[in-house]
Here is the input.
Amino acid sequence: MKRQGIEIGRINYQDMGNWNHTLHIHIFGRATTATKQKYGEAVYLPQRSSGFYDTFKPLTEKDVIEMRTEIERLMETEKYKNF
Here is the structure.
């Protein structure tokens, strides 16, 4: 996503002890200049009724393609290629 000007600060790939081979991911965007939900802090998801989500914009097709490309690359790595 860096090609689109979106800086990736940290990506955690964590095996959670699932008994089946399913890749399940969550993507959380953070602004490095945020005063709430500061970059680098643990994610806190407010209730939908809080108004927190009112200004969010949906992902573009280009965003989805970039994420899909990275997930496909990850799935070809030694760790995940047998999923």
Remarks:
- The two ends are 24 Å apart (CA to CA).
